[in-house]
Structure formats: C-alpha cells, structure tokens
Amino acid sequence: MNEYRTPKFNKNTGYLLPGIYLMTIDELLNHKILGGTLQRQKLIKSLKEACEIYWKYGIYEIYTNGSFSTMKAEPNDIDGYLCVNTNSKEFINLQKSNSVWSKFYGYHHEKDKFEMWYKHKIEFYIEPEGENIFHYFFTHSRENIVRGIIKIIK
C-alpha cells in the first residue's frame, strides 16, 4: 500500500481511501475529522499514552483503524495492531512491564476484550513481523471494501 501524509476519505462509505496514512498524535488531535469531537480527543489522548509506552520499548509499527479511522463523529473505541518481533528483548520486556498496554489477552469473561479496552477504549493486537493477518483484516471492511489505515509516527 502507498503511504500518505494527509488523510482522504471516501464520502460514500466514510472510510479512508486505500493507503497508509502517516500521522503524529498532534496531527490527529488537530485534524478536523479525526480529532474533531470531544470523544475523539479523549480517545487520542489515550492513544498517546499507549504510543509513548510502545515507543519506550522500541515498537514503532503502530496502526489504527476501526470506526476511529472513519468519518464517524463519535467512535466508541480505537482498534489497531502492532507489528513486532515477538522474540525481541524489547517486546519481552514490554510484556513483563505489567502495563495495561502490555496485556494482549482476554480480560473479561462476558466479552473477549483486553484490559486496555476496558480502561481506555483502545485495543491493540499483535502481528508478528512477516505476517499479514491483521494488516489484511484492518484494510478490508466486512463488505470487502478496501480501506486505508493510520500509522502513528513519532
């Protein structure tokens, strides 16, 4: 997929046009759609917290999608994935850190959501380097419409 700096939306579907949109947290906060409501601002502030932890552990491949990456005014949460070397010292140390951002497993017996979702309405999945499972999932809608994703950059 091509990389872009300025998000462009399909006005009919509300999805990002296909591609990877490189954005900083500040760019998200100041974007008229992606940071345009109080709900979105709150989600982005939690996203910032997560990214700062991931960057501390050398994780820079951070992608978001779901309703957050659409024109929907009030998304409920942020979905995303981290592309990581699951055998790296940094990732192992992240998992040992006991941070809410390091718990990539079900937390609640009624819903299979991660603890980070219950506390921050954000859920990141792990995509081991070299695989393409989550990338494909996040770049295609349920109706198989190809859509864009956002890569958070420092």
Give an account of the 3D structure.
The protein has 154 residues and is α/β, with parallel strands linked by helices. It is 29% helix and 18% strand. It is built from five helices and six strands, in the order E-E-H-H-E-E-H-H-E-H-E. The chain has helices at residues 25-30, 38-56, 89-96, 115-120, 133-138, and strands at residues 3-4, 20-23, 62-65, 78-84, 122-128, 149-152. The chain has a six-stranded mixed β-sheet with strand order 1-2-6-3-4-5. The chain starts with a strand and ends with a strand.
Question: Which properties best describe this structure?
Answer:
154 residues; alpha/beta; six-stranded mixed sheet; 5 helices
Give me a quick take on this structure.
Helix content is 29%, strand content 18%. The chain is an alpha/beta fold.
End-to-end separation: 20 Å
**Class of secondary structure makeup:** alpha/beta
Q: Strand portion, in percent?
A: 15-25%
> What's the gyration radius in Å?
15 Å
> Low-confidence parts lasting 5 or more residues at pLDDT below 50?
none
Strands in their spatial order, largest beta sheet? 1-2-6-3-4-5
Annotation field: number of helices: 5
Biggest beta sheet attributes: 6 strands, mixed
Query: Which descriptor suits the 3D outline?
Result: globular
Find the count of extended strands (DSSP E, 2+ residues). 6
**Rounded mean pLDDT score:** 92
Q: Spell out the helices and strands N to C.
A: EEHHEEHHEHE
* Percentage of residues assigned to helices: 25-40%
